[in-house]
């Protein structure tokens, strides 16, 4: 949930809920895909970025200040948890794949301006699997 263009935006499972702050009028946005589930919200350069998962895979949608969909794409990367930080979307997965044969944690890094995956990090293999992660900025303790 966040405030964008004087509206409260809430990511609900199958669509975005937009509540106008002054009148409390409610509107809904979807991408005409019944399998897609919205997740994290982020604003950058007067645009709204929303992560989603589609059949278990990572997706990203960009909306303008009027909530018009500018672009969306589903990437070939499994989705479990996601976090935005600046111009990056970080997505954690523990799904066993051809590039993650053990099923231990892997974090994909996506550039939201270039709309592409730019790398990935493997987490240390431990007895217990990851449940969540945090993005720390330099200087954070």
Describe the structure.
There is one protein chain. The relative contact order is 0.13. The chain is globular. A hairpin with a 5-residue loop joins strand 3 (16-20) and strand 4. The mean pLDDT is 86. A 4-stranded antiparallel beta sheet has the order 1-2-3-4, with no helix packed on it. It is mostly beta strands and 141 residues long. 0% of the residues lie in helices and 53% in strands. The chain is built from no helices and 12 strands. The two termini are 26 Å apart. The protein has strands spanning 2-4, 7-11, 16-20, 26-29, 36-44, 47-54, 57-63, 69-78, 81-85, 88-93, 106-111, 116-122.
What's a concise summary of this model?
By secondary structure, this protein is mostly beta strands.
């Amino acid at each position: 949930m966040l405030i964008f263009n004087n509206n409260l935006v809430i990511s609900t499972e199958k669509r975005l809920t937009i509540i106008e702050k002054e009148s409390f009028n409610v509107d809904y946005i979807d991408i005409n895909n019944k399998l897609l589930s919205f997740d994290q919200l982020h604003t950058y350069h007067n645009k709204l970025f929303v992560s989603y998962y589609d059949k278990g895979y990572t997706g990203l949608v960009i909306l303008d200040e009027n909530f018009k969909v500018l672009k969306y794409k589903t990437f070939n990367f499994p989705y479990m948890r996601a976090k935005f930080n600046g111009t990056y979307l970080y997505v954690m997965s523990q799904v066993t794949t051809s590039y993650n044969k053990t099923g231990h944690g892997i974090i994909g890094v996506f550039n939201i301006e270039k709309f592409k995956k730019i790398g990935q990090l493997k987490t240390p293999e431990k007895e217990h699997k990851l449940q969540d992660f945090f993005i720390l900025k330099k200087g954070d303790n």
